[in-house]
Amino acid sequence: MPDNTSDETLRRILRDAKTIAAVGISTNPVRPSYFVMRYLHYRGYQMIPVNPAYAGQTLFGEEILASLSDIPDGRQVDMVEVFRRSEMVPGVLKEALETLSGVRTLWMQFGIYNREAEEAGRAAGLEVVQDRCPKVEYQRLFGELRKAGINTGIVSSKLPGQMA
Amino acid sequence: MSDALDRYGFETLQVHAGARPDAATGARQTPIYQSTAYVFRDSEHAAALFDLKEIGFIYSRLTNPTVAVLQERIATLEGGVGAVCCSSGHAAQLLALFPLMSPGTNVVASNRLYGGTVTQFNNTIRRFNWSSKLVDFDDHDALRAAIDENTRAIFCESISNPGGYVTDIPAIAKIADVAGLPLIVDNTAATPYLCQPILMGATLVVHSTTKYLTGNGTVMGGAVVDSGAFDWSASGMYTALSEPEAAYHGLKFHETFGPFAFTLHATAIALRDLGTTMNPQAAHYTLMGIETLSLRMERHVQNAIAIAKWLERRSEVEEVTFAGLASSPYHARQKSVYPRGAGALFTIRLAGGYDACVAMVDKLELFSHVANLGDARSLVIHPASTTHRQLTDEQKTASGASPDVLRLSIGIETVDDLIADLAQALEAAHA
Question: What was the ipTM of the complex prediction?
Fold first, then answer.
């Protein structure tokens, strides 16, 4: 399912987000969700791992919560990233909208997309990204993946870090 | 996935894509990073790079900063998500097939191919217990019939060598799509300026960057570009990309890297273990060449049209296979699929047959007699005795390389000078 979010919008989402809740996180080091959390944590994002199966365990210094509703009131969460099956996304979105007042982005991992959640999320004023990986998009849009021949879409005669 | 082709014109991207000023020095032209290895920040950084958790430079067999700029530039011009460069066009074909094939599988390919590719597909890859079936890609029923449960890819050239035949890429892509197979297109003779196969439905594009992309006949090189659009996990047939990779602790490339799976696999597995790496000097020459690709291709096409029209009127010439001629059976297809031109590669059949072909090659002064194409210089060769020599007579005829034809690769010289050279050689060869 092609996601048509522009590079400019993706760059803005990833620049503005500070705290990301990762729903359906795995503690298995070869699972994509573990990879993504490890990378985004390393890049300075505040990560909130969520998965009832591992609740109470610690991942990269963060306690794994059972659900989004366990996030303390008043903690700003900018983005919810979903690593669960596509049909589970509307439920995750509903919980996010009920419990996280400041959430701005619903992001679905590679292979995950849900039209109902997309429409409901947009109706609630959220940015909705589907079938993409925030780690890979970060690596692409901020230049890291160009080291491995990926088309980053970056065209600029400014020094890296000075882009207009 | 990148929208660069929507935001910028081709001529802007051929100069800028992939190449920002050098972060360390501000150098505006891409530096030649002549270094085999790169220092890690610390042990954790080294481990993260080796586990593919972070992407960075380790060792130039896998990635090199100069080569990476060329990779991104070619990927951008082709409308792909990524590209991997390698040591030659033949290496590119192997890198394209490598993650798709396994023992007992086959590739269904057009019978209009460069002779070296026919040999690679019919003979050499058999050593891996892969095989090929060559069919006429204008016979869509034959193509569909050739596909069986062991087929893993469809392969063709956009503009084919030697005859300049133009493949109906949208139609072939549709057949591949219905069969659930990736279409690989060798876009060497067209270049992305004349044809962007990925935008017509191809999955992978391969190049011999030795040819028009470099443009001066200086360095060998190849590239594989991935569209990022093929679902490697759906059929269960592409296990190298869809199943756990033992060398990376059981990571699944497609699941982890999505549309970038093929490109990262090509670097992390294929280049690592097959070692068919492009060197940074070669990447530098090819980057220089690509900066003027559109200008050169316009002139190549302009000269080819003038020369083909002139040749068509000569009594010594029985056939000119250039699809840019109004008389060509492929002219309508060329106009719709390759609107900017039919390239600059075609064959001529001489009334004097084999003897006239040999005599003409020896009489030409400006045309160089070499086994190459896509140079700024005009080139000539007799395919049946050289580039297509290993083929059977039947294969030679099918691929457009029968003994009475010469292949011309039209350069960017003054067209009147090229015509004068052809005139004196044609006359001498038929005296």
Answer: 0.88
